[in-house]
Design brief:
four-stranded antiparallel beta sheet, single chain, about 140 residues, 9 strands
Length: about 140
């Protein structure tokens, strides 16, 4: 085995041991590395992403707050009631018929967002499920 192959194997093993539950790379934001957020596409003044909400315990109702580092002009998702007071933090909650989730299941919420012409692409910096921060890496 050549040295470069050995180095790759060691690096892969170290990554696996360090955080099998981590997503993305060390250069990504904490919300990406914790698997709570996945950026899918970026275009002029807009982007799409998925929120991955992991339920550690069984629930019958839930509320998710997603926070961005810049104001959004629009935040569109089509499955759950959503509200905002400042266009930076958006609150989503279950519908009357879909609040139940078993323990150790994950709900994916897809969205599109748009922002002002003179801004950098906003980043998700917080995802909370019922007040508990999900952007953490063990």
């Amino acid at each position: 085995m050549q040295f470069s192959q050995f180095a790759l194997l060691v690096a892969a093993a170290a990554l696996a041991a360090a955080g099998a539950d981590e997503c993305g790379s060390p250069a990504d934001t904490l919300c990406v590395r914790s698997c709570a957020y996945e950026e899918l596409a970026v275009w002029d003044h807009g982007f799409s992403g998925d929120l991955h909400i992991h339920f550690e315990t069984e629930v019958d109702t839930w509320n998710v707050d997603v926070a961005f580092d810049h104001e959004l002009q629009t935040f569109n998702q089509w499955a759950y009631p959503a509200s905002t007071s400042d266009h930076r933090v958006f609150s989503l909650s279950n519908n009357p018929w879909d609040g139940h989730h078993n323990a150790n299941t994950t709900l994916t919420i897809s969205f599109n967002a748009h922002y002002a012409d003179n801004m950098a692409t906003p980043m998700v910096y917080s995802v909370k499920l019922d007040g508990q921060e999900k952007c953490v890496v063990p």
